[in-house]
Write a structure and sequence with these properties.
two-stranded antiparallel sheet; 290 residues; Rhomboid-like fold; globular; mainly alpha
Length: 290
């Protein structure tokens, strides 16, 4: 298909999926205005077909991880090598620069948009390695059920809900007297909140009629991963719980029983654009405070 605007013929309505004229002002099946999207509907569908959720997340997180290491060195700080779990750890300053969430950035710096960007940042080599392995393990199953675009939407919504919960908990329950498994985060990052969202979406899909096995295995993964946070310090339980809830609710809204539509592709593009803008806003905001 040539990558240009379509001016004649029929296109698929972004809302209901039936054919309409590219110049029609309204879809006569669902009533959507401008179903041809000014002739760009086929172009949106073409680029949507290029989505690969796992590759997008893995490459995006790896690029930002490398940038966080470069930023650490660029600011004259040391890359962490203190322990097994801190191998190649970027500095906290570089993570705040690129969009880490938590009580400090969200409430004290006023960087509320970091709840969008934090899912794409990681605090060490092992942190990103384990999270990307989970993305590669769980992502294809969610993508098969929901489609690539809706999987991106779920990943984004889960991260937003998870890091909002964590940041609020960090504001009210971030003191040293709080047990570590109930402590909110002053600074928090990682794809695990969104990974819990993917599990939450699979749990809803299983309940929706997608299969008892999927429902049971998704619950099992979520319980095992959440249990780790109750016994090991440094794990953001609020982000995980919020991400799971966010993914479950996103699945309810997106309805896995229905097929993916062009509308979902446009929302997914919007999620990725908003995330990129959140990272850029963090860089500009932090540099302005220096």
């Amino acid at each position: 298909m040539p990558l240009k605007r379509q001016k004649t013929g029929s296109v698929v309505c972004p809302s209901c999926g039936l054919l309409v004229g590219v110049r029609d002002g309204k879809c006569y099946n669902c009533g959507r205005s401008n179903p041809g999207l000014w002739g760009f509907a086929p172009l949106v569908r073409h680029f949507g077909g290029q989505f690969n959720f796992v590759s997008l997340v893995v490459w995006g997180c790896c690029i930002l991880y490398v940038l966080s290491l470069v930023a650490t060195l660029g600011m004259g700080q040391n890359i962490g090598m203190g322990g097994f779990f801190d191998i190649l750890a970027p500095s906290s300053t570089s993570l705040v620069l690129l969009g880490a969430a938590g009580a400090y950035p969200v409430f004290y710096l006023g960087s509320w948009w970091t709840i969008l960007s934090a899912s794409w940042l990681h605090g060490s080599l092992l942190h990103i390695l384990f999270n990307m392995l989970w993305v590669r393990d769980i992502g294809p199953a969610v993508e098969e059920v929901f489609g690539s675009a809706r999987t991106i939407i779920i990943f984004t919504i889960a991260g937003v809900v998870g890091f909002l919960c964590s940041s609020v908990a960090g504001l009210w329950m971030g003191g040293p007297g709080v047990p570590f498994f109930m402590r909110g985060a002053t600074l928090t990052i990682g794809a695990s909140a969104s990974i819990f969202g993917l599990l939450g979406a699979l749990v809803h899909y299983g309940r929706r009629g997608g299969g008892h096995l999927i429902h049971r295995e998704a619950w099992m993964y979520a319980i095992i991963l959440f249990a780790f946070g109750l016994f090991f310090p440094g794990i953001d339980n609020y982000a995980h719980a919020g991400g799971f809830i966010g993914g479950f609710l996103a699945s309810m809204l997106l309805d896995p029983a229905r097929r993916e539509r062009t509308d979902h592709l446009m929302i997914a593009f919007g999620c990725l654009a908003a995330t990129a803008l959140a990272i850029l806003a963090s860089v500009v905001h932090v540099l302005a405070l220096v």
